[in-house]
Structures are given as structure tokens and as C-alpha cells.
């Protein structure tokens, strides 16, 4: 597993590529965006909505780094990881690990494009 070498910025770029085909875009269809780099947030020049690469993805559901999410996806996809082990690896409480594991399992079952692609990348 290559989770050790991957950086947070790599993860973010991977998500930008997967979600928007490398070109960030607002839900309204507009591609003219302002980027607030301190918070990694985009602001749409048409509808003024603010969003980020994790909006509308499972990554929004827990406040852990993308690197940890990617590691979690690899572990859950790989099979027999317990919530105790997952919590240790991610340095979070077991109940939080359980929620993350549940989210990932559901996403894999529903063939979430982004989660499936990340699990492929992490093999
Ligand atoms: Zn917009």
C-alpha cells in the first residue's frame, strides 16, 4: 500500500481529477471560480455559492485528513479490518472509525465512482 508516500495535496489533486475531470466546476455549471486557498474553497462567480472538492462526497462526513480517508478506503476495501484497528491507524475513536467504515462500505456497494477509483489507486 502506497499510503505512506502520498501527500494531502496529492489526495486533493486526485479528487479534483476524479470529481471534475481536473477542471473545478460549480453545481450550476459555471467554471469561472475564485479559489480561497487558505481554506481550499471555491466561490462561484455566477451563483456565489461556496464549495470544495469534498462537497457532496463521503469525505465531507468526518473531519479527518484526505490521506487518512484514502488509507481507510484501502483498508476497508481490502477486507477484514476491524473498527478497533481502523481507529488505531486513523488515530480516532472507535465509534468514529465505525462510522467511517460504514460510509465506505456503503459507497463501495453503491459503486461510488470516486471511492472505487481511490480504492483502485491505493492497491
Ligand atoms: Zn455556481
Describe the structure.
The chain is mostly helical and 123 residues long. The chain has one domain. 47% of the residues lie in helices and 8% in strands. The protein is built from five helices and three strands. The chain has a three-stranded antiparallel β-sheet with strand order 1-2-3, with no helix packed on it. Helix 1 packs across helix 5 and helix 2 (66-77) crosses helix 4. The termini are close together. Bound molecules: zinc ion. Residues 26, 28, 30, 44, 46-47, 49 line the site of zinc ion.
The biggest beta sheet reads:
3 strands, antiparallel
Ligand inventory reads:
zinc ion
Strand arrangement across the biggest beta sheet: 1-2-3
Alpha-beta content class: mainly alpha
Taken from the alpha-carbon principal axes, the silhouette is: elongated
Structural domains: how many: 1
Mean pLDDT: 94
Q: What is the rounded distance between the termini?
A: 6 Å
Topology as H/E string?
HEEEHHHH
Give the total of beta strands. Answer: 3
Portion in helices: 40-55%
Q: DSSP strand (E) fraction?
A: 5-15%
CA radius of gyration is 15 Å
Q: Could you list the spans in which at least 5 consecutive residues all have pLDDT below 50?
A: none
Amino acid at each position: 500500500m502506497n499510503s505512506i508516500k502520498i501527500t494531502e495535496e496529492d489526495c486533493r489533486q486526485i479528487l479534483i481529477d476524479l470529481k471534475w475531470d481536473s477542471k473545478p466546476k460549480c453545481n450550476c455549471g459555471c467554471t469561472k471560480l475564485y479559489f480561497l486557498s487558505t481554506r481550499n474553497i471555491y466561490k462561484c462567480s455566477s451563483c456565489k455559492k461556496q464549495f470544495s472538492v469534498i462537497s457532496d462526497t463521503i469525505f465531507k462526513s468526518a473531519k479527518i485528513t484526505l490521506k487518512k480517508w484514502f488509507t481507510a478506503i484501502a483498508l476497508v476495501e481490502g477486507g477484514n479490518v476491524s473498527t478497533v484497528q481502523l481507529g488505531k491507524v486513523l488515530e480516532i475513536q472507535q465509534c468514529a472509525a465505525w462510522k467511517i467504515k460504514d460510509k465506505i462500505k456503503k459507497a463501495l456497494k453503491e459503486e461510488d465512482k470516486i471511492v472505487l477509483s481511490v480504492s483502485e489507486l491505493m492497491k
